[in-house]
Amino acid sequence: KAGVTQTPRYLIKTRGQQVTLSCSPISGHRSVSWYQQTPGQGLQFLFEYFSETQRNKGNFPGRFSGRQFSNSRSEMNVSTLELGDSALYLCASSSSAVDTEAFFGQGTRLTVV
Amino acid sequence: GQSLEQPSEVTAVEGAIVQINCTYQTSGFYGLSWYQQHDGGAPTFLSYNALDGLEETGRFSSFLSRSDSYGYLLLQELQMKDSASYFCAVRDGDDKIIFGKGTRLHILP
């Protein structure tokens, strides 16, 4: 079956702009979680969605938001971009909210200039 | 605060055995997962321990001691393709997912 698909793969934005990233989970998976990965901080949890409901949110400012649609596809949005938002954004899907195994997409590499 | 600690780098020789440790400090605990990530690639799931003891999957094994808040990933018969970063991860008592900063494994021929 197809894996987790993230679009776009690469993105360059200017400070102050906003961006929307998309994630299509594995078919049948209802849980989607998002992470920010930077060389210095590793993988940091952004939020988790299950059946269109946000189950949890990490310690990121309100500029970071997300949602999940009825087909389990998820989007995350970052508004008023800052240089420090440059990172690899990874999405992972699981079959349930308490699943022990997550499948990651290839990520979206966001560069803010 | 909540944290997972793992060594930043480990070096081993091809064919040898290496252990990557992870200690955690979280409010509540469900289980410990391990992921592998090659440069430029996505993290891939390796193992999960919810109970104390050793879980073996081929050349990889993972161990957990809940009383010591400690786990490790054991890689045997190291191959050059095992050169990657390895992350431990915990779903804590608040149901949030926390990752360690990763251990870069270097393998020498």
Itemize the secondary structure elements and their pairings.
The complex is a heterodimer of chains A (113) and B (109).
Chain A: E1 5-7, E2 10-13, E3 19-24, E4 31-38, E5 42-50, E6 53-57, E7 64-68, E8 74-78, E9 87-94, E10 103-104, E11 108-112
Parallel strand pairs in A: 2-11
Antiparallel strand pairs in A: 1-3, 3-8, 4-5, 4-9, 5-6, 7-8, 9-10, 9-11
Chain B: E1 3-5, E2 9-13, E3 18-25, E4 29-37, E5 44-49, E6 53-57, E7 60-65, E8 70-75, E9 84-92, E10 97-99, E11 103-108
Parallel strand pairs in B: 2-11
Antiparallel strand pairs in B: 1-3, 3-8, 4-5, 4-9, 6-7, 7-8, 9-10, 9-11
Describe this structure in words.
- Chain A has 113 residues and is an all-beta fold.
- Helices cover 0% and strands 53% of the residues of chain A.
- Chain A has strands spanning 5-7, 10-13, 19-24, 31-38, 42-50, 53-57, 64-68, 74-78, 87-94, 103-104, 108-112.
- In chain A, strands 2, 4, 5, 6, 9, 10 and 11 form a seven-stranded mixed beta sheet that branches. A four-stranded antiparallel beta sheet of chain A has the order 1-3-8-7, with no helix packed on it.
- The termini of chain A are far apart.
- With 109 residues, chain B is an all-beta fold.
- Chain B is globular, with a radius of gyration of 13 Å.
- Chain A binds chain B through residues 4, 33, 35, 41-45, 48, 55-56, 58, 90, 92, 98, 100-107, and chain B through 30-31, 33, 35, 41-45, 48, 50, 87, 89, 91, 94-102.
The overall pLDDT average of chain B reads 93
Order of helices and strands of chain B: EEEEEEEEEEE
In the predicted model, the low-confidence regions of chain B spanning at least 5 consecutive residues are none
Q: How many helices of chain B does DSSP assign?
A: 0
The major pleated sheet of chain B works out as:
6 strands, mixed
Number of strands of chain A: 11
Radius of gyration of chain B: 13 Å
- Tally of alpha and pi helices of chain A: 0
Rough outline of chain A: globular
What pattern of helices and strands is seen along the backbone of chain A?
Answer: EEEEEEEEEEE
Radius of gyration of chain A: 13 Å
Q: Identify the quaternary structure here.
A: heterodimer
